[in-house]
Amino acid sequence: QWHLAEGYRQMEAPYLIKxxxxxxxxxxxxxxxxxxxxxxxxxxxxxxxxxxxxxxxKPMLEDNASRLTAYKPGVQGLAHAHPxxxxxxxxxxxxxxxxxxxxxxxxxxxxISTIVWNDKGWPVTALSADLLGELAEK
Length: 138
What we know:
The protein is mostly beta strands. It contains one helix and eight strands.
């Protein structure tokens, strides 16, 4: 058993993939019952056993992770996301979300988004807070 990350602000739904010499640890962070605090994060390591670091080189074991998703109109609170590679080489993430978290009759919906990788090797999705900035990172 290995301790890879720590989430003082609540962490769940971890998922690991290997791509281009790195292991990427995706986790959900925040409180799903509070608006806009729940989001998907990522860190990476050259070793399966860590240490996993965020984009700034800070360890996930110290409650650090790079935010991968933000609330967007029609897609809020992406939860339990799962990255996967299809047979054609395209990366995707699939997870549950809501169109509007403030709607008392809200229903959970399935969300599928492509994942692209910027020049620094970090995943970027349509739900990234600064989509164009993330893609432009060199």
